[in-house]
């Protein structure tokens, strides 16, 4: 069954990786370690993390003991900041078809606008630190810098 909520793989990786980094404050975490934890391609994750670095959300350190870490505290970074670093500004979707054809009255009523608003509110109102326990409680969560 397809998901109703569509978030790109890149945005999903960015959100998960950012929470993972927030769960390891002040520690450099390697791309390999994050990719392993998220069951993701290292190459794809590396590109995503570079975009977060370009947006000023993470810093990268090169070398064998290098990795990524948040540039600010996890309670200072909202999920929306991470999402928009990858996808650009969150824009409400008024039609699943892209080009409205329903002449002012959608077959979904106000459902799309309501869901978009709820998702936007959640992303804007949730900071990374609020979600770190998700990773801390997982078996094999990143616990040390690599």
Q: Identify the CATH architecture of the domain at 9-90 and 127-136.
A: Orthogonal Bundle
* Overall pLDDT confidence: 87
What is the N-to-C succession of helices and strands?
A: HHHEEHHH
Regarding quaternary structure, how should these chains be classified?
A: single chain
CATH class category label of the domain at 9-90 and 127-136: Mainly Alpha
Number of beta-strand segments = 2
Q: Please list the strands of the largest sheet in the order they lie side by side.
A: 1-2
- Classification by helices and strands: mainly alpha
Work out the helix count.
6
Q: What's the main sheet like? A: 2 strands, antiparallel
Please compute the radius of gyration using only Cα atoms: 17 Å
Global shape = elongated
How is this fold's topology laid out?
Blueprint (H helix, E strand, L loop, with lengths): L8 H14 L8 H8 L3 H13 L3 E4 L5 E4 L8 H9 L23 H15 L6 H5 L10
Antiparallel strand pairs: 1-2
Helix pairs in contact: 1-3, 1-4, 2-3, 4-5
Index terms:
146 residues; mainly alpha; Arc Repressor Mutant, subunit A; two-stranded antiparallel ribbon; 6 helices; 2 strands; 44% helix; elongated; disordered C terminus
Provide an overview of this structure.
The protein is mainly α. The protein has a domain at 9-90 and 127-136: Winged helix-like DNA-binding domain superfamily/Winged helix DNA-binding domain (Arc Repressor Mutant, subunit A). The protein contains six helices and two strands. Strands 1-2 form a two-stranded antiparallel ribbon. Helix 1 (9-22) runs antiparallel to helix 4 (79-87) and helix 4 (79-87) packs across helix 5 (111-125). The radius of gyration is 17 Å and the shape is elongated.
């Amino acid at each position: 069954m397809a998901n109703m909520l569509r978030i790109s793989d890149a945005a999903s990786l960015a959100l998960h990786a950012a929470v993972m980094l927030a769960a390891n404050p002040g520690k450099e975490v390697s791309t390999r370690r994050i990719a392993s934890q998220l069951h993701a391609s290292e190459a794809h994750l590396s590109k995503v993390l570079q975009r977060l670095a370009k947006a000023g959300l993470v810093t990268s350190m090169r070398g064998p003991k290098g990795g990524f870490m948040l540039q600010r505290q996890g309670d200072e970074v909202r999920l929306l900041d991470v999402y928009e670093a990858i996808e650009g500004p969150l824009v409400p979707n008024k039609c699943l078809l892209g080009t409205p054809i329903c002449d002012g009255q959608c077959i979904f009523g106000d459902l799309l606008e309501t869901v978009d608003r709820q998702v936007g509110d959640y992303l804007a109102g949730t900071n990374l630190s609020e979600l770190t326990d998700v990773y801390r409680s997982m078996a094999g969560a990143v616990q040390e810098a690599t």
